[in-house]
Design brief:
Number of helices: 18
Distance between the termini: 14 Å
Number of domains: 2
Strand content: 5-15%
Order of helices and strands: EEHEHHHHHHHEEEHHEHHHHHHHH
Strand order of the largest sheet: 4-6-5
Length: about 450
């Protein structure tokens, strides 16, 4: 297997073959993995968004540093540590490993390479949107035809019933299905339990797995899973934008069952605890795992619900709890489904242009409001996300597309819900990276 990482600016093309040019050595990946975890934790001292989760030994955590010291990023020292780990990984013969260890080797190599890329970013190297996504996630988002997407979205929005601008008409369709704030907690508890019940029909959930749900505000994201270790997660929902009924099941299947909470719990229990693979005690945000994790979370809802089952559950169970009328809901969902892919890809292209400096913040805000009918608040929240997380946005749409393609390819001609779940579970329980799922 060959890995190519294209690094911009001062980088050279890093092409390292897993066929060793050195004397064969025993695996030695445990020692490499420990040093990788410590490297990631050290990088995290200088990047507040970098560490998504850590549940390894407390003694591995580096001491906190002062604000003054944080300004002096030790790029040379950290770069040397990462390059030494890549050299050691390159000296390992994949042919001498069993199948799961081969996946582990690929996973470790890709994650050390991504850590090296983040070191260079923090050292001041400017990356394009495409270069960053390739380095961090091992994937890039195909460039879409912006004018075609604009035309398609405009045509759909123009056909909406009612008076006023497209944004006003879309909001008038949406507003009857906003969950009252006093009902939000109950709706979430009922919906997450249904997601859990459906997930448990196909997989034995980890013993003692548990979640907490918390409502927050003033965040650049809509919802977040903070995995705490030992099959426990804190789930946060950002209340800056009121949640509609159709969003709730999607959010909970993404963040909890069978999405992030289940995925991270299985990796922790299967790999970190059972196998002693310590690299699975840390989750850096800018890493190939994020691409797979977001793909799993995006696909998960369609694995446990058909569209008809989900709508029935919403109408028959959630709507009465919320005290909302279902009249017009099916039409609203159909409109949202029509708009979904086109608006997702156009937002990605606007984010790409903004990240690459081809659009000012004012221009990007204007495009989000004019082309996607975003409110000013929502447009700025979308750009805050890019400011905080860069090219991470590709992991949702491109990750979902790749997982759907992989699952469809595996069950082609013999599709059943059970077969789709079997492939999905295989992804959940294997340390894959994007290249493992590509044709």
């Amino acid at each position: 297997m060959r890995y190519s990482v294209l690094l911009p600016g001062i980088f050279a093309l890093l092409i390292i073959s897993c066929k060793p040019a050195h004397k064969p050595v025993a695996s030695g990946m445990d020692g490499i993995a420990e040093k990788y975890v410590k490297l990631v934790l050290e990088i995290g001292l200088y990047d507040k968004y970098y560490i998504d989760a850590y549940h390894g030994p407390d003694e591995w955590k580096p001491e906190e540093i002062s604000e003054d010291k944080a300004k002096n990023f030790p790029s040379e020292e950290l770069r040397q540590k990462a390059e030494e780990l890549l050299t050691k990984l390159n000296a390992i013969r994949p042919a001498e490993l069993d199948e799961m260890e081969k996946y582990r080797h690929s996973f470790l190599y890709a994650h050390v390479a991504a850590a090296l890329g983040n070191i260079e970013r923090l050292a001041g190297v400017k990356m394009t949107f495409e270069d960053e996504s390739k380095i961090f996630y091992g994937a890039t988002a195909p460039k879409a035809d912006v004018e075609f997407l604009r035309s398609e979205i405009k045509e759909m929005l123009t056909s909406l019933p009612g008076q006023g601008t497209a944004a006003e008409r879309l909001e008038s369709l949406r507003s009857p299905f906003i969950i009252p704030s006093e009902k939000l907690d109950t709706i979430m508890q009922v919906a997450v339990e249904e997601c859990r019940r459906r997930t448990a029909l196909s997989i034995d959930l980890p013993e003692h797995e548990s979640i907490e749900i918390e409502l927050v505000s003033n965040q650049p994201w809509g919802a977040y899973n903070w995995y705490k270790g030992n099959a426990h997660s804190l789930i946060q929902l950002n209340t800056d934008r009121p949640s509609t009924m159709d969003y709730m099941v999607n959010y909970l299947s993404h963040e909890v069952y069978p999405g992030h909470h289940l995925h991270l719990s299985l990796m922790d229990l299967d790999f970190a605890q059972e196998r002693g693979w310590v690299e699975f005690t840390v989750s850096p945000l800018y890493a190939p795992l994020s691409f797979i994790a977001e793909g799993i979370a995006e696909v998960g809802g369609s694995i446990i619900f058909t569209e008809a089952e989900r709508t029935q559950f919403e109408k028959e169970v959630l709507f009465p709890i919320a005290g909302l009328d279902t009249n017009g809901y099916s039409y609203y969902k159909a409109i949202q489904k029509q708009l979904s892919k086109s608006t997702t890809y156009l937002r990605l292209e606007i984010s790409r242009a903004y990240f690459d400096g081809k659009l000012t913040r004012e221009q990007a805000t204007e495009q989000l409001m004019n082309d996607l009918s975003y409110t000013n608040q929502r447009a700025n929240q979308a750009l805050d996300f890019v400011d905080a997380y860069g090219s991470y946005i590709i992991n949702y749409s491109t990750g979902e597309d790749l997982l759907h393609q992989y699952i469809n390819r595996k069950v082609q001609g013999t599709y059943t819900p059970q077969k789709a779940w079997e492939v999905f579970e295989q992804i959940l329980r294997t340390p894959v990276i994007a290249s493992d799922l590509q044709e």
